[in-house]
Amino acid sequence: MEFDVLDEHEQGELVQKWLRENAMSIAIGIALGLILIFGWQQWKAHRVRHAADASAQYQALSDAFDAKRTDDAKTIAEALRKDYPDTAYATFAAMRLADLANGKGDLKAAAEELEWAEQHAGAPALKQLVGINLAKVKLAQGDADGALKLVDGLPKSDYAALAGEVRGDILAKLHRNDDARAAYQDAIAHLDASAPNRDFVQMKLDDLGGAAKPATPPVAKEEAKGS
Q1: What is the mean pLDDT of residues 205-220?
Q2: Half-sphere exposure for 85 (CA within 13 Å, toward CB)
Q3: Which of 85, 99, 179, 198 is the most buried (most CB within 10 A)?
Q4: pTM to 2 decimal places
């Protein structure tokens, strides 16, 4: 507590002495702080530009697809995957190419595009959507076991109904009808009563036969809770 008993003049002298002795350290600290602040701002600005550029490229890709300029679309998609692999736009581009390949019956190329998309999909929901589409391709290729392993390993997200339907398709292909019924029921349970594909999934469930009780849609569940 010796510092507390000094008068204002003595305290001022000590402060001035400390500043002189530590001037270089203070200057370096301030400089580093400014560099970090500037660097952070620059990095954020770069990320914004990066995302904006990727968005513009994807719009060009969509325009090329709409105009049936397939070769241009492929070129733009490759540029997106090369220069912007960390963005969702690159994943979307790979999915568009997979859809194009699938439409031509080239399941191998479609699977390759979707495998790339799955590896680079950042958000869990996007990763699940890509994985579901990849599972469909694997099933079409005759690899039901691989498709099931893929679906079972996907993260949970907003596509539970779609995942349940695809899982039911795979299990039905494997002749695991009881498990397929459970998967279709789970899919229906995640669909609203007005969902356009609800009747289609119910038809798949009915085709399996057996005494399967239709799942209650989310709306009906909420009404039952409130009554």
Answers
A1: 61
A2: 9
A3: 198
A4: 0.68
